[in-house]
Amino acid sequence: MSTTMKPAAPTVATRPRRVGPAGLALRQGRLEITQFLRSRESVVFTMGFPIIMILIFASIFGGTIGGGVRFTQYFITGMIASGLMTVSFQNLGIWIPIERDRGVLKRYRGTPMPKWVWFAGKVIMVVAIGVVETALLLAVAVALFDLKLPGTAAKWFTFGWVAVLGVTACTLCGIAISSLARTARSGSAVVTPVALVLQFISGVFFVFTDLPAWMQQVAALFPLKWMCQGLRAVFLPESFGAQEPAGSFELGRVALVLALWCVIGLVLCLTTFRWTTKRDG
Amino acid sequence: MDDELAISVRGLRKAYGDNVAVAGLDLAVHRGEVFALLGPNGAGKTTTVEILEGYRQRDAGEVLVLGSDPAHPDADWRSRVGIVLQGTGEFDELTVAEVVRHFSAFYPDADDPDKVVERVGLAGKAKARTHTLSGGQRRRLDVALGIIGRPELLFLDEPTTGFDPEARREFWELVRDLSAAGTTIVLTTHYLDEAEALADRVGVIAGGRLVEVAPPNRLGNRQEALATVSWRTPDGALESAESATPTALVAELAARFGGEVPGLTVTRPTLEDVYLRMIGHR
User: Is B63 exposed, middle or buried (0-12, 13-18, 19+ CB in 10 A)?
Assistant: First the structure.
């Protein structure tokens, strides 16, 4: 830690920061991760919940769903997608209103920190926790439920871009939806039902093609359905594509819809983001 | 722009819908002075200060803070202005030292975090998570974050709320230190003794306007007000008289009682009396 002692006399000229912008972003990311890891509820809810769900579902539903695929494997790919949505969309949509209400954002705005550094800190946290959580889920799935890791570079590549696009869309939407909550407590009330309903209709808890047609159409408007479908292309056998609604994994459309949600999320963020609460003006 | 002014405000107006919070306020704060803003809740104090801090946009008026318009704050201006917000425990899971060190990186000429933690009296709590701090200790952390960047101008919003008397005295010493080092300080407070102890000048805001500005001992012509002399008569009844020449009256009483005057007090209006009269009470 630097303990630079300079003369107290203030000068008016622009002075360089001791830490560069990239360094600030990394520090901000580290701070966010530290806060997350030290908050037990966040860790249990975000990291533990998907694993518990996998253990429960795998114990209840043991059957196969066609194409030589067991429901457990189908469900696990859905939980990996849900996990990515939890660390980004739910995590930010619940925590940002709390921080806004407590004045954290206002305090940062009162410092010379560039605005984007704060967002970068959130993104670094989401990515770091998303990677760890996905690795944990994969480890459990491979060890206990015979999930096969992708065997080809192409599949790893698909895994990569589906995860990146999905997390980007969910992060932007999480930041955007955080402005809907009027108080610290309402963040959870706004975000949790949205996330839960999406999980039910997007092919996480149930096989997507078993759902009523109208429900499938509604789900197809949102990112989670496409994240699940993209990950099934990675983790389930090629032949299972025939079981999908369109008769294939439709990777092109997965990319298109997720990219579209990135744009929608970004526009919403730019137009609606608030640094202070309503009562703060 | 007068370089001697840290803050200059002319005709500041701000309304929220039909509710006019600030109605044509003028204010000048000199470099290096400690200026206290007093005023009841809802008088426009917070709105004014938040406009000066760059948090709020004004409807009309000219405002210069350190020579720049705070409506468009840039990083350089931000690094010269320190703000002590009324925190509510934002960094629960971090330690005092971690939070102060983190904020120090935002400033080009930051003070040594350990030194600042010690200066606000939290050295013994440096490794404590902030959620374990008492209300007063949390305020000290707010102050630490306000001064870590070595600001030229420091805003203190009700800084000693929740302090015990000893902590308040220590805090006053800190403010005097900062002031002695040349920092301009704008303080809002509900404690009139605090304004009296710290401020070079006091401004009273009522109804969205600055109704008077004066050194604390001159506010409302306090020093020229009549003194009240009271004493007890031999049968124990309380008697009092207002006098422009209390010393003469006391001498006369001493002669009348042949020595000690029972229950003698001589008082002038306190800052509180004057203040309450100004904002329309009494």
Answer: buried
Strand partners, B146: none
The three state secondary structure string of chain A is: CCCCCCCCCCCCCCCCCCCCHHHHHHHHHHHHHHHHHHCHHHHHHHHHHHHHHHHHHHHHCCCECCCCCEHHHHHHHHHHHHHHHHHHHHHHHHHHHHHHHHCHHHHHHCCCCCHHHHHHHHHHHHHHHHHHHHHHHHHHHHHHHCCCCCCCHHHHHHHHHHHHHHHHHHHHHHHHHCCCCCCCCHHHHHHHHHHHHHHHHCCCCCCHHHCCHHHHHHHCCCHHHHHHHHHHHHHCCHHHHHHCCCCCCCHHHHHHHHHHHHHHHHHHHHHHCCCCCHHHC
CA–CA dist B52, B65 (Å, integer): 7
Q: Nearest CB to A113: which of B106, B112, B152?
A: B106
Q: Is residue A119 part of a domain?
A: yes
Provide the shortest C-alpha distance from residue B36 to chain A (in Å): 21
Instruction: Give the helix/strand (H/E) hosting B119.
Output: helix B113-119
* In-domain check, residue A10: no
Nearest CA in chain A to B184: A10
Q: How many CB pairs under 8 A join A and B?
A: 101
Q: What is the pLDDT of residues B232-265, one digit of tens each?
A: 988 888 988 888 888 999 999 999 888 889 989 9
Q: Write down the ipTM of this complex.
A: 0.83
* Cα–Cα distance measured from residue B64 to residue B118, given in angstroms and rounded to the nearest whole number: 33
pLDDT digits (tens, 9 = 90+) for B104-120: 999 999 999 999 999 99
B90 with A16: Cβ contact below 8 A: no
The pTM score is 0.84
User: What digits encode the pLDDT tens for the residues A119-166?
Assistant: 999 999 999 999 999 999 999 988 988 888 888 999 999 999 999 999
Q: Is residue A3 part of a domain?
A: no
Contact B243, B236 (CB under 8 A): no
Judge whether A13 lies within some domain: no
Q: Domain count for chain A, please give it.
A: 1
How many angstroms separate the CA atoms of A142 and B264, rounded?
A: 90
